[in-house]
Amino acid sequence: MNLKHKIEYSISLIKKAEKLALKYDSEDGFYLAFSGGKDSQVIYELAKMAGVKFQAHMNLTSVDPPQVIKFVRKYYPDVILHRPKESIYKLIPKKKCLPTRIIRWCCDLLKEQSGAGTVTILGIRKAESVRRSKRNELELSGYKYSGSFDQFVIHKETEVSCIKGKDKIMLSPILEWSDKDVWDFLKFRGLPHCELYDMGYTRIGCIMCPMSNKKGIARDRKMFPKVEKAYKRAIANLVESNPYYATKLNRDVDLIFEWWCSKLSMDEFKARNIQQHKIKFD
């Protein structure tokens, strides 16, 4: 399927879903999850092209690159910015652990709970990761629905209240798009993009995101030194709230931070430091 057909298909999918979206939110229609990245720009533009009712929302995490916030405020002033009740730095000692690839409480608390009780348009794509390659165009919270959209509507038509509490129906209209499709679409529509892409970033997210690789973490540390200092202050408070870090890494804030950035298990990190730097651990 070429880009033209992908655009047509995505717009058709969004149009079909509008009736359902309005049943849950007659005032705003779709809840469009916006991040300031290229994929969220695409779904925003597709929603406009589809002529549907939607409101774009961006959930800030307190570790958002300032370049992204500046870009969104300049080019997407209608996007509603939601600030967290507590910064990630305050949440770290409260959760008694740092967020990691395995324990991603940061996304759960700061992003994924948004849009509850709505039909939410997401800009996720299979090409982004193995995890996302298993996603479906239409999902009900954690439940993956593999049938067609029309079948879903028929199945749920008599149960419009299927969304309860924190549930939401998630629509991913560009799931099958490639990176090239996204960039070609932005160029075709004459849309600007965040300057971070011109600085070597391929994906835009939180500064020092636990899902970033070591190269990405190193780049963030160099570009955002104040964020590293803030994380270390949070780690100092974490050591006081969780003795695990105190006993495992000698209450050493810098050492704990280096472990977190290393992407190694605690035992692997300790073994490497004992061998390379002759560090003694309690």
Automatic annotation (TrEMBL):
Residues 32-210 form the Phosphoadenosine phosphosulphate reductase domain. The lineage of its organism: Bacteria, Pseudomonadati, Bacteroidota, Bacteroidia, Bacteroidales. One of its GO terms (molecular function) is catalytic activity. This is Phosphoadenosine phosphosulfate reductase. It holds the Pfam family PAPS_reduct.
